[in-house]
Structures are given as C-alpha cells and as structure tokens.
Amino acid sequence: KGDLENLFVLITKRRWDPALSANEFSFQPANHPALHPGQSAEIFRNKQSIGLIGLIHPVIAKKLDFSEKVIIFELACDAIEPTKLPAAQSVSKFPEIRRDLAILVDQAVPSALIQDTIKEVAGDLLIEINVFDVYQGKGIPADRKSIALALVLQHSSRTLVDEEVAELIERVVTKLKDKFTAELRG
Q1: Which of 34, 36, 37, 170 would bridge with 55, disulfide CB 3.0–4.6 Å?
Q2: What is the mean pLDDT of residues 6-11?
C-alpha cells in the first residue's frame, strides 16, 4: 500500500494525505475471493473504483506453496494518469514535530478511518500522517490490532510548543477512544 501511495504522490505531485478531497486516491475495505478477508482494499480515484490491493488468501497461498505473505494489486492504468499540478504554497520556516502514536483498535476498523479522524481533529497543523506498523499476534487480544502512526505537525507562521502538541495529541486520543474504543498502547 505504501508503494502505491508513493506512486500516487508522483502522479499528483504532492505529499500523500488520505484525508484530502474527493479528487484524490483512497482505499476502502473490500472483499475478493482471491484476497485475504479483512486485509484487502478497493482503490478509488474521484470516487471511482480503479483497482484492488490485498494479501493473497491463505488457501490460495497454500496451494501455490508460498512460504511468505504475498500482497498483490491491480490498477486501471488509464485511471492513474497525472492530474493538473496543485497550486504552489510557501514552505514554512518553522520546524516540523513528529509524534508517534500506537493504538489498539478492533480488527474491523480500517486505518484510513483512523487517519481521517486524526486529520479532522488536528486540522491544518497535521501536515503528514503515515501508518508505519500494524501488528496482530502475541500480546494483542485476538479481536484487536495495534496500529502505529507517525504524525508530523507544523504551524505555518510560528514554532509549535510542547504543551500545545501534547494537548493536540490528547484530543486525538480522546476522539479515537470515543469513536473507535481505541486504547493507547504503551
């Protein structure tokens, strides 16, 4: 998925942000007989389906004698042609601040919804958000998953202070708890 997001960055000539407007790319949970249930997504551009991505279904992987997990994707090439260039924006002279957040959520909660919620709470201060780890297994309840996200924050006209960043992260965590019964992970 990260490789596709990087491709979309090249196409749109701007940083990947899953919470941008409808003319951008998005991933929505999907079911396909060849893909692992719960670990596949349909890819959209302009709210139009342009492909699929997901982990090969375990039954198929076993038949093909794969020893490692295999992720496949399919894209309609004509749907990923470059769009018009975005308007230029001035680059902030003030430092970025990165905060990592690890949460436990129900397995059915898509990471895109979590990212959208964080974008909604953080607003313009959030300049980048990335999922850098999803873990299910030892130490995590069977019906939950751990999602680790990197939040990059920056103000366009001043340096952010620690107290304001801590307050923003607290609001994000509270919203995630309320909306997804998320728990902050150690």
Answers
A1: 36
A2: 74
